[in-house]
Design a protein that fits this description.
With 251 residues, the chain is of the alpha+beta class. It has a domain of 127 residues: 2-Layer Sandwich (Nucleotidyltransferase, domain 5), CATH 3.30.420.100. Helix content is 61%, strand content 10%. A 4-stranded mixed sheet has the order 3-2-1-4. Helix 4 packs parallel to helix 10. The longest helix has 59 residues. The radius of gyration is 34 Å and the shape is globular. The termini are far apart.
């Protein structure tokens, strides 16, 4: 009977050394994401022979302390915003390309949302669009919809389930709007949907203004016509009076 020696991190199911070797050989900077029961942490690292160097790191607690985030710190929106913050920091440090490395961890929707945030910040990270959650779930629309339904059905359950959000001063129905507000603070860029809606609002405003102008012009035209009629009438009255005077003088 022979004894096969294995590394401790393999026995404890912590490291996949095949993936680890591929990352080191490729010399790529890589992103790691750790999601706990309360928070999410993400790091951008660079592998070296002597160990990994941390280029940038982001934690969901930063969202609340520095950017005014009032929502959950481990939800899909929080994961996306944490990834967006990490990507912004990495770009400031001069790193614009990376890969995802999760080791022995599972690739979940929250990890995908965090990677989506890193990609949207401008970092080139190879990922399939099919792997990312829907934009409605990333913005927290599903939370807002559920909260609206629960509020009408059971007010006590609504207050109990969303007590933390309500304590922070955030109505769960306003989750998407609050998400966009914090996302704009981090990235400084408006959402594509908001950019597309702006020209429509402008056109609507211009259309409304044109209509009001027409409505405003109609009374003006009426007044001008009435004034013209009045002037022509006064002229006719003047002519008729002059004619009558001429007849009297002849007599």
């Amino acid at each position: 009977m022979t004894f096969v020696r294995t590394l401790k991190r393999i026995r404890s199911d912590k490291t996949n050394y095949r993936k680890r070797a591929a990352v080191i050989i490729g010399r790529h900077s890589f992103v790691t994401v750790k999601v706990t029961d309360q928070n999410v942490a993400a790091q951008m690292l660079k592998p070296t022979p002597t160990g990994d160097l941390v280029i940038a790191s982001a934690h969901s607690r930063e969202l609340a302390k520095q950017h005014g985030w009032k929502g959950s710190t481990n939800s899909l929106p929080a994961c996306y915003l944490t990834g967006l913050l990490l990507g912004k920091k990495a770009l400031e440090k001069g790193t614009s390309k990376a890969i995802l490395y999760i080791g022995k961890d599972h690739f979940t929707a929250r990890v995908a949302a965090c990677v989506k945030g890193v990609a949207d910040s401008g970092v080139n990270i190879p990922m399939s669009d099919e792997s990312f959650p829907d934009s409605d779930r990333i913005s927290g629309q599903h939370i807002a919809d559920y909260a609206s339904t629960l509020k009408t059905e059971d007010q006590d359950e609504y207050s109990s389930r969303f007590s933390a959000l309500l304590k922070n001063g955030l109505k769960p129905e306003d989750y998407p709007a609050h998400f966009e507000e914090v996302r704009f603070k981090i990235s400084g860029k408006a959402a594509p949907a908001a950019i597309a809606a702006a020209p429509k609002k402008k056109e609507a405003a211009e259309g409304g203004g044109g209509k009001q102008a027409k409505e405003g012009a109609a009374p003006k035209e009426k007044k001008e016509k009435a004034a013209a009629k009045k002037e022509s009438g006064s002229k006719e009255e003047g002519n008729s009076s002059n004619n009558q005077k001429g007849v009297k003088n002849k007599k």
